[in-house]
Amino acid sequence: MERKDRYPLKNLNTFGIDVAARHYVRFDAEKEIFEYLRRPPLAEATYLILGGGSNFLFTGDFPGTVFHPALKGISIVEEGASHLSVKAMAGEKWDELVAFAVNNRWGGIENLSYIPGTVGASVVQNIGAYGVEVRSVIQRVETIDVPTGKRAVFSGQECGFGYRTSRFKKEGCDRFLITAVVFLLRKNPRFVLDYPGVAEKVQALGDPCLKSVRRAIIDIRKQKLPDPAVIGNAGSFFKNPIVEKQKMERLVKNNPDLPHYPLSDGRFKLAAGWLIDRCGWKGKQVGRVAVHDRQALVLVNRGQATGREILSFSEKIRQSVEQKYGILLEREVRVVEPTM
Ligand code: FAD
Ligand code: EPU
Q1: What is the reported pTM?
Q2: Phi, psi at 315, each rounded to 5°
Q3: 225 lines ligand 1 (CB under 6 A)
Q4: CA angle 43-18-318, nearest 5°?
């Protein structure tokens, strides 16, 4: 465990915002968390849980304690004829788990290759990409209920998963500190290649296998998305909006090329990147903040921008999409204001 005061967070958020936390605690083992939480009085204290910081926007110094779970380890907990249960500790890098699974020929998460961040956070917003969401392989999530300091374990069904959400994001943001996740992976992979552009890329690499799917996904992502190590960003800033069929039909009538995808509940998901793009924002820069020139859903820090600048820029985008299309975009990124 490491405890520090006035801890810089610049390297712990992928926007690269230069802020600090009043207190910082890094946990390297579960028992450290239990011991730490035995101290009173956490209930009233301000804290947040930080993984890799790839889905955060800090608009100022954080006036409380940042908990940084850095628990490491990957192990097989059960093995059957067709599946196996793999337990990964929360502080493992997500993409290192994907690489490990692919190298061992375990299928289920290959389409989620190259998503930044940690294993623990993958559950929080139910990460998704290229036709797969992590909920499809979640068997169990092990947590510590911070207010009581007691262990709480949830099955996949109990996680309340939805598009870019779960119970850990909704009702219990920061309540449950995720310590480990158990994934149910397949020994005989089933390839999901129907997302536009994926099948062609995979075929160009030869017969589909886990390695070629991973390679194809990484190549597509590198073409579209900026590398946070080079240019600060947090991936998609907004979620794709979900609308009723009637609204989709009205919009598509006036905009026949608006991408829209049917959902199982009869509603439709629209492409926020397309909406922002058609409002003329793609590649635009205001001060030190810009919209990425290859993916309009991604805001980028062109160097030393503050969180406030990024937030107010994002609000301008939101207003213009609302004015033009009557859709209020919802943020995917978690914004932390110093007053919170
Ligand atoms: P953080 O940003 O640190 O935290 C995210 C949330 O999880 C916060 O609410 C935090 O409090 C909570 N949290 C973190 N760890 C824990 C824990 N152990 N216990 C409880 N709560 C915790 N996301 C996608 O879904 N699909 C994509 O394709 C995708 N592409 C991206 C591409 C780029 C270039 C970038 C920068 C981001 C992208 N993201 C994508 C968003 C981001 O990578 C994911 O949301 C990721 O899961 C965040 O992981 P993190 O460890 O950085 O979490
Ligand atoms: N589009 C445009 N202009 C743009 C961007 C997109 O017209 O500037 C159009 C594309 O042509 C395409 C559609 O919008 O027809 C969808 O674009 P894309 O395939 O790039 O995916 P997305 O919907 O913009 C989502 C996720 C990504 C994820 C990809 C791949 C959300 C909010 N974003 O983006 O996740 O990697 O699909 O599955 O759901 C993230 O969450 O941070 C993230 C990067």
Answers
A1: 0.98
A2: -70, -35
A3: yes
A4: 85
